[in-house]
Amino acid sequence: MDWFLVLKRKALTGIVTAILSTLVVFVYFKEQVDTSILWLIFLVFAVAIFSYGIAVSLLADFLSKKTNPKPVALFIRFLVYLFFGSILFLGEFLVFYSLTASLLFFIFDEAIRYGQLHSLDATQ
Predict the structure, then answer these.
(1) Would you call 112 exposed, middle or buried from its count of C-beta atoms within 10 A (0-12, 13-18, 19+)?
(2) 10 Å Cβ neighbour count for 60?
(3) Interior CA angle at 92 toward 42 and 58, to 5°?
(4) 4-31 burial by CB neighbour count: b if 16+ within 10 A, else e?
(5) In Å, how far from its chain's centre is CA 23?
(6) Which of 37-41, 50-54, 82-86 has the lowest mean pLDDT?
(7) Dist CA 92 CA 46 (whole Å)
(8) CA–CA separation, 14 vs 114, rounded Å?
(9) What confidence tier does 2 reach under pLDDT thresholds 50, 70, 90?
(10) C-alpha angle 100-101-105 in degrees, rounded to nearest 5
(11) What does the radius of gyration of the chain's CA atoms come to, in whole angstroms?
């Protein structure tokens, strides 16, 4: 496994997830969230998505690494993301934000992984 490609994929996934999860949560809570603090919310949660999200993503990859068939490994990774995304029970806003970020991180990480695997297959 090329760690540089893995970390590059995780960083790209973290960037996309931080931006999109902030937008999704803002749209959902637009009546309760002041737009003037949207950047503050983005910055705080971007740090959490990068540190916590990348760590959980690496854990999910580790736990599913030796699993066959591939759909079972995908399901294991999904459950790990879902579990760690639902740990925060500190109010509707945080639960919604963490689950949204967790599921988006899972979707984008898998999409980029799928694209990388197929682009590597095409070059060989």
Answers:
(1) middle
(2) 22
(3) 55
(4) eebeebbeebbebbbebbbebbbeeeee
(5) 14
(6) 37-41
(7) 19
(8) 17
(9) confident
(10) 120
(11) 15
- Distances, alpha carbon 32 to alpha carbons 25, 37, 108, in Å: 11, 11, 28
Q: Which two tokens stand for residue 14?
A: 């973290």
pLDDT value, residue 117: 63
Structure tokens, 59: 């854990």
The identity of residue 21, as a single letter, is S
33 phi-psi bin (left φ>0, alpha ψ -120 to 50, beta other): beta
Longest dimension (CA), the chain: 52
Would you call the peptide bond into 69 cis, given omega within 30 degrees of 0 as the criterion?
A: yes
What are phi and psi for residue 99, nearest 5 degrees? -70, -40
Q: Is 90 exposed, middle or buried (0-12, 13-18, 19+ CB in 10 A)?
A: exposed
Residues 115-124, mean pLDDT to the nearest whole number: 61
> How many of the other CB atoms lie within 10 Å of CB of 45?
21
pLDDT score for 80:
95
Cα–Cα distance, 53 to 10 (Å, whole number): 9
